[in-house]
């Protein structure tokens, strides 16, 4: 295992859409070998921290924004940065929510451990163990044990509570309450027949979506009763062979999934309340073909969908309007594996197979008043409740996202000035 000094990342700046690139300083003997991949990247919920799995069991946590100079990240100018040695390949990571002031006062009144108010980072390892770290000190707080396969995806609930959902190659989802004292037990969700490659939590914390890598299942679970709700079906495409990723829009009214059949990869948009497939975002035959979609994420404002494929670091799509608005240059030598938006927007981070992280400048758009109204309404109102409203059909279709055009194929006239050649 490399020392922390050997793994200090280099930071490079670039023009156009690429803002910065972090390159892990692995020894030459380890370059290009299995274990150096960046499987996961994440920003803290307030945007002040960034973490990435830099390969060979090391997670680097840095204060945001980063500062570029000729020699890299200078330790003396970034005293809060942490290098966490997990001892195993790290597949997933997630920042825990920072409790609100009101919650902190409640915790103090209840004589809880003061350390519980610290910002936490969860890391999922190859042996199934989930390690919980204190971001401020870089100290290991405790381990979560139960998974019998790789802990692939970790997600904290967006309601500010210390509830963690993990998915694993052992075909299960586990829900952990980190406020429990003593032994950390979990609720186990079973039903998938093969690896679970990704999971996502709806913004209102009512549902969990999970996709099975090889079992062709897109499952919805109740986060309130810990029970199975439904399996999404009804696609017009051929039978699923692989399912890669999923994500909810910030209002929870749409769920995007990436899937593969014999004809190639595509992205479906679903209504999670009705299990209806609303649209296919791209024409898989013309755009992706055999290029694997590794990850997808909606922007914090819900206007854009970031897509990472094996031959490009990033593609950015605008829902319902022009189609693709940004595309990075083809780069098969550095296959993309993951992506995540900064919570304030404007920047998206992508991780690659060679252990690097790139930060891209993405468009900043002022959401329309109609979009803001829809987002505010759908955050607390289900599709069935919207359908019961006495409103015109056109407004109903807008509120339920049924006005998104199907098969949005990129054309030369749909690119904006942010396109990277």
From TrEMBL:
The keyword Repeat applies. Residues 363-405 form the SOCS box domain. Gene3D superfamilies: SOCS box (1.10.750.20), YVTN repeat-like/Quinoprotein amine dehydrogenase (2.130.10.10). GO terms for biological process: intracellular signal transduction; protein polyubiquitination. Keywords: Repeat, Ubl conjugation pathway, WD repeat. It comes from the Eukaryota. InterPro entries: SOCS_box (IPR001496), SOCS_box-like_dom_sf (IPR036036), WD40/YVTN_repeat-like_dom_sf (IPR015943), WD40_PAC1 (IPR020472), WD40_repeat_CS (IPR019775), WD40_repeat_dom_sf (IPR036322), WD40_rpt (IPR001680), WSB_SOCS-box_domain (IPR051983). Pfam families: SOCS_box, WD40. CDD domains: SOCS_WSB_SWIP (cd03733), WD40 (cd00200). WD repeats lie at residues 144-186, 189-231, 293-327, 341-362. Pathway: Protein modification; protein ubiquitination. This is SOCS box domain-containing protein. It comes from Esox lucius. The lineage of its organism: Eukaryota, Metazoa, Chordata, Craniata, Vertebrata.
